[in-house]
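ok posting inputs for the adenosine-5'-diphosphate job
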Amino acid sequence: MIYSVIVDLSASEVDRIYDYKGEGYAVGTRVLVSFGKRQTEGYIIGEKQTSDCDESKLKQIIRPLEDFPAISQQLLQLGSYMRSEYHLRWADVLRLFIPAEMRGSRVRALSKQQICLATDDSLDIILNSLKPNATMQRDLVTFLYLNGATLAETLNKEFGASALKALKDKGIVSSQQIVIRRTPYKDLAVGKADKKQLLPAQQHAVDTVLSNRQGRFLLHGVTGSGKTEVYLTVIERIVQQGKTCIMLVPEISLTPNMLRQLRERFGDTVALLHSGLSVGERYDEWLRLKNGEAQIAVGARSAVFAPLENIGAIIIDEEHDSSYISDFNPRYNTLDVADYRAKQNGALLLLGSATPSLGSYYMAQKGQLQLIEMPERINKQPLPKVEIVDMSWETRRGNRSIFSSLLKQRLAETIQAGNQAMLFLNRRGYSSFLMCTKCGYVAKCTDCDVSLTVHRDDNMLKCHYCGKRFYMLDQCPNCKQRSFRQGKIGTQQIEQLLKEMFPDVKVLRMDADTTQTKESHGKILEAFRNGEAQILVGTQMIAKGHDFPKVTLVGILDGDQSLHHSDYLATERTFQLITQVAGRSGRDKDVGTVVLQTYTPTHYCLQLAARQDYVGFYRKEINLREAASFPPFSEILRILYTGEKEKDCIDLLTEQYAELTDLKGKYPAAFLYMDKMRCPLKRAENKFRFQILIKLQKDSLKQLIPQIYAVCDGKKRSGVQVSVERNPQNLS
Ligand code: ADP
Ligand code: ZN
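and the output
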């Protein structure tokens, strides 16, 4: 038999299928092959009777790497779709489907020695066969008799290794290797939770979803409307029918929370897939899904590739979240992938959000998604009251602090009442840049065109793009002056200012700096939930999903921050962020308050977000998008050229641009816009960055995308990477 193999080469830019000879392999199996002078891993993606190459020269597959096909037929099909849709290399796509450490055999199943009694004799008979003074041996046997099979390591610890060895030698106990599953977040929810009686709105949502097992749904429910319970009930019903489910949540920080609720309900049948797990845990959870031990996969976006068969439902919570779009290689959109997998399996797709993405809500308007509304909070609790503060007025009044007088007052009241507050600022570090007051020198990363952020914890300057760290400056390297001005305030400084303002109040901070270890997210959130602190300061990590009953005040310190970006998604993102953050307030009995600080208090986005008027915002924004023919009324393509040699990037871009211009000449109506330029972020990680931006008519995509990709694959320059993004989230 001839097998089509994708060779797993990391550095290579080639995307070729190689033919190998072999017998008896299943498609999807990972195999060892010789390639050039060395041996490498590969994936069998197809089989055939004959090769187009000279068959006498084909090499034999050396051996399989696992005794099962790691990648299912369905996932191979999905891979092929993703490859043509997003312009990806086979090897990069296939890697998405297996735990990273399976490659290179850096992880294997954990097996341990288990001991059990080797005879069916009664305890008395066994004990009689042992010496009366062999206490440890006697205790060990008794223990085994009462407790059944036990790990050798436990017995060794309790009774000593010599006792166990002696019993083994006498043939009284026997040992066997058993596979141990490493379980992430073991302590999370071992108990069972009571099922909630669904409220009418929830019942209606569940009934609607279950009435069409292959439907596409958008559940638009305000924050606190009880969407989670809807998801759980749908999963329960699907699993009861012997099918499997995938439940996606946006960020690592949210997974433990969702995992807890799923485990309370479904116990061991839930497996967690995300990058924050240890290598062994990730592998074992994947394996449990693969071999049917677990039927429910939960995780961030990569869980959409869970190795499940017979999928009945794919649920995407907070579907508007930008983390569902992978913005580095391999780039893909989780919602499209989920839709494809749902179709493959005849499964239903349920998207949920309080602030659906404009694109999804538009699809619902057009009938491509069935809209389900849950407009009220549980117990008809009112949405929080939002107070907008004009910060330029504060400045005119002489208040130069980042806290408005209203926010200070509300903070004091909240603390007084024994409640909790969350303060949101999407900027970590101490301050956003360091500038010499004399010559204007700004400290920048040596590898990126990015100014360095001041960090006070360790007194360093850090590049928030590539993570590189630099020593703090005590004098300007340019003019030797020792006086610096600092940029905008970050979360570190907020934490410090709060401690000065309220010396007796405990403050917690959650941002990328305080959450570097695996469990730190959960620990901070748990501490806050337990009331160990009264104020939680954080970046967007604190914005989503968390349900803290004692929070009655939310402060948004810089409501404009994301508003004035030049890209077309800026207003939508700001609206979502503010609504989400505001939704954290007043989720229990007390009505919540939100203080929204801004320099543009009359902006429609902030006004509508303050009223939590999603539909009002949608109407306004969708009209603007249509007028300017932005997505969802068009498709934006960015072709990115990056390389260490500036000239090579420009040369390649120029050549490909010329070919694209020819293409545009052939299809003038399809190209709404095309231009080439330096990226706003000119250099990153020591590479220059250039781009071609194209805006395409929607109905021309099928015809044009392959032709545009062909141009990208055509001419080459060594050292220049060409990558394509569709509807990029970020145009920097
Ligand atoms: P959402 O995800 O829509 O923001 P949640 O699912 O977090 O809302 O639900 C908000 C709160 O309401 C949670 O504390 C949840 O336990 C509670 N809740 C949800 N459904 C019910 C119900 N049917 N009866 C009582 N409480 C409920
Ligand atoms: Zn950098």
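notes: Residues 431-488 form one domain. Residues 196-199, 202, 221, 223-229, 378, 547 surround adenosine-5'-diphosphate (ligand 1) (CB under 6 Å).
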